[in-house]
């Protein structure tokens, strides 16, 4: 395992690392072993292994394994395994993640209003903001094209609360959360959804950070942190 004690050293190591890409300042590790120190930010995917120290932040996906120490913080998604020691904290966002040590479990709410409150989303006049990740052509793998400034409707909509995936449009509470469904997004889109258009899943979900809705209004394109991106005149 190669260890970096400064951000500069981490930059150098990860740039040489064959299974890592740097996207918007975040290091995406898909295999192998990496140690994160100081204020570094790492996203662990696939079967990668990360050890987090000091004030580093790690987001764990897939079957990745993370050990957190110091004041580091790890968010556990999907089937990831996280162990948090000392002052480190692991936030368990998936019911299937395995978290040992210092953990904070985010329980799944009972309604769309509760889901919004859990994720810090304001509801105004029955509407709220969510995000969608698309490919470079603004389409999803299901063939829906998201056009900025337009209302998008799923003609195959099914309002049953027993459906978690399919038969509707799917959104997450922030752009980064969308990456569990599209790990190389071409675009992140800010969308507005009405509470009445949501069919809130009635069981314990496999993907607790997404919701399913009949339709949405596409407001604008944003970056990975939710900041609007100015569109060039065509």
What would your notes on this structure say?
The protein has helices at residues 7-16, 112-118, and strands at residues 20-23, 26-29, 33-36, 41-44, 49-52, 57-60, 65-68, 73-76, 81-84, 89-92, 98-101, 103-105, 127-134, 151-153, 169-172, 187-194, 210-213, 215-222. The strands form 4 sheets. Strands 1-2-4-6-8-10-12 form a 7-stranded mixed sheet, covered by helices on one side. A 5-stranded parallel sheet has the order 3-5-7-9-11, with no helix packed on it. Strands 13-16-18-14 form a 4-stranded antiparallel sheet, with no helix packed on it. The protein contains 2 helices and 18 strands. A hairpin with a 2-residue loop joins strand 1 (20-23) and strand 2. It starts with 6 loop residues before the first helix and ends in a 12-residue tail after the last strand. It is globular and about 50 Å long. The longest helix has 10 residues, at 7-16. It has 2 domains: 7-105, no CATH class; 112-222, Alpha-Beta Barrel (ADP-ribosylation fold), CATH 3.20.170. The chain has 234 residues and is mainly β.
